[in-house]
Each structure stands twice: as C-alpha cells, then as structure tokens.
Design a protein that fits this description.
The chain is built from 3 helices and 18 strands. By secondary structure, it is of the alpha+beta class. Strands 3, 4, 6, 9, 10, 11, 12, 13, 15 and 16 form a 10-stranded antiparallel beta sheet that branches. A two-stranded antiparallel ribbon has the order 1-2. It is globular and about 90 Å long. The relative contact order is 0.18.
C-alpha cells in the first residue's frame, strides 16, 4: 500500500528544513555586517578620512632629503607617500604625496634605527597620541613603523643610518596612529627637532 504523508507533516518538514537552511545564512550575514562595521570603525564619513591608522598598514615613503648620521640628535627628516595607501574598507587612508616625518633613534640594542614618526593627510597629522601624564619615554623603545625589506644603496640600522635622497623606504605600522596629534617639535637653524624624546626619558 502506498503511504501518503499528511499535509500537516509535510508543512512541518518544510518548516524545519527552512529553519535549518536559513540559520547558517543569517549567521553568515551577521558576520558580514560585523566585518563591514569593523572596517568602517575608524572612517569619518563627514571628513572623508580615517580617525586612526591601524597596525599592519604598509606605507611606502620616498625620501625628499638624504640621511647620513652616526648618532641620534632627534632631528626630523622628511619624505612623501610614494603611492596611495588604502585602509581595510578600501578607501584611501594616505594619498600619494602626503608629507611624512621620520626620525633616527636608539634601539634597545643601542643600534641606530630609522623609524616612522608621523604623516599629514588633508591637514591632519597622524601620530601616536599620549596622555599628558604618561611618561612618553616608554614609547621610545617600541618601534612605530618596522621597515619592510631592504633599501637600495641605504643603511637603515646599525652604527650609522645612511639613506640617499629619493630612496623608497617602506614601513609597516606597529602601533596605531591617531588623527590630529599636535607636533611638539621645535625648529632650529632651519631643521626640525623632537627634543621631547630626551626630556621625557629623563623623567623615568
């Protein structure tokens, strides 16, 4: 005898099937929404720019002046972004030509090292923001931007740092840079210095 399932049982079966099929779809959609929200977390739609540049951001800089030093004197050197840098949501975080600051400082092993200091985008300076009561010398021993790859004809670490003008130095951010951080540097004899590195270190 051929068995015919009742309409009620068929409806219940289809309902359960729909439930099981739709649950994973909803979960995937929720994950996509969360991912999109995270990608836009640091994007300011009104100003059309990021409020913070995240660790892992890779920034290729072209040096606009040569570096040839055998000691750290807190002088700031300049470069420009060699190409557009995009954030997680695909928008431009740093446009090509944006001005950047670099500094030669002393690493943990007492070697000199070229480090990334800041970048200016649409008039806003991105740098590490520190609370007024924080001893900023703690950050002196952490890399702001790790250099990715070798520099042709240049030396970026050791007893001396020598980088020819127009060299491309590529950094990967190790720390987040926040928008609108004021420059506390001073200018002497036509050069810019961040003397507060040493002053903060003295207060350890």
């Amino acid at each position: 005898m051929f068995y015919r399932p009742s309409k009620l049982k068929v409806a219940l079966g289809l309902g359960l099937l729909t439930l099981f099929v739709s649950a994973p779809l909803c979960s995937a959609q929720d994950r996509d929404r969360d991912r999109d929200r995270d990608r836009d977390r640091y994007w300011d739609e009104n100003r059309g720019m990021y409020t913070q540049l995240q660790p892992g951001t890779v920034i290729p800089l072209r040096m606009t002046e040569a570096i040839d030093v055998e000691r750290s004197d807190n002088r700031v050197y300049h470069g420009i972004a060699d190409q557009d840098v995009r954030g997680d949501n695909g928008r431009i975080a740093i446009p090509r030509g944006a001005e950047a600051e670099l500094i030669v400082r002393v690493a943990r092993d007492n070697d000199l090292i070229l480090d990334f200091e800041s970048v200016v985008v649409n008039g806003q300076r991105y740098a590490i923001r520190a609370e007024p009561n924080r001893v900023e010398s703690q950050r002196d021993y952490g890399i702001v931007g790790a250099i990715v790859g070798a520099v042709n004809g240049g030396q970026v670490r050791g007893r001396a740092v020598r980088i020819p003008r127009d060299s491309i130095v590529t950094f990967r951010l190790e720390r987040p840079l926040e928008m609108g951080v004021a420059d506390r540097g001073v200018t002497r004899n036509g050069y810019h210095y961040h003397d507060w590195y040493n002053r903060d270190r003295e207060h350890q």
